[in-house]
Fold this sequence. Notes:
alpha/beta, single chain, seven-stranded mixed beta sheet
Amino acid sequence: xxxxxxxxxxxxxxxxxxxxxxxxxxxxxxxxxxxxxxxxxxxxxxxxxxxxxxxxxxxxxxxxxxxxxxxxxxxxxxxxxxxxxxxxxxxxxxxxxxxxxxxxxxxxxxxxxxxxxxxxxxxxxxxxxxxxxxxxxxxxxxxxxxxxxxxxxxxxxxxxxxxxxxxxxxxxxxxxxxxxxxxxxxxxxxxxxxxxxxxxxxxxxxxxxxxxxxxxxxxxxxxxxxxxxxxxxxxxxxxxxxxxxxxxxxxxxxxxxxxxxxxxxxxxxxxxxxxxxxxxxxxxxxxxxxxxxxxxxxxxxx
Length: 302
């Protein structure tokens, strides 16, 4: 499979409206082709319902589809599964459990909004989206229904659900990271530690540069011990400011230390956040994830 990827533009972590993206799976594939991407991964949050639609669209394009899923675990750590059998019993059972936990979390969020005088209707909210619903989805819903007087979903999210926001709610009861890794392996997939630089918010005073590096190291070590096989070393708004340039290099050092394959992805949701089309060039010391024995392009029978 490594030969089939040689010289092609790859982007292995992206979202559709089956989770919190702005576009249908078919539309995202067409956007990928327009951006010059030839190997494209779709990894919606806690569901794989868009994979077959994306595949059917990919047959009309020059894009090769890589199936994926991004599984939520405690402390907002996301474990991506690349190339799993999306019909595997362990995986489908786990995603069903995740969906139930997400729905209960959303019900509680609606109760808190209602108590604050913002009358969000749970059933109407859930029927407004084709896939999984999260706080950003709720922000979109509140704006569309004119339940809040703000100008964008980002503004809604910051005011109500961000750090220090008016509506505070604990995390859903997600599966443990180890469970996510184990299930991806049982489904024949490659467990990938997603965007490690997105964790351990640097806006929090306790998360100094040194402490963030320690936490990233500990997480990568724990992931490896759980059976993890790859990690993202490039992408997803990495090192955007001068203060965080170490985010560009430290994931590479972790992948080397823990002998993990290297992956990459925009974490695309919509053009206004991180548009498609970035060029990802790995450090030559790394093993690209497409060299992993389990890496393959999606086919419905896989």
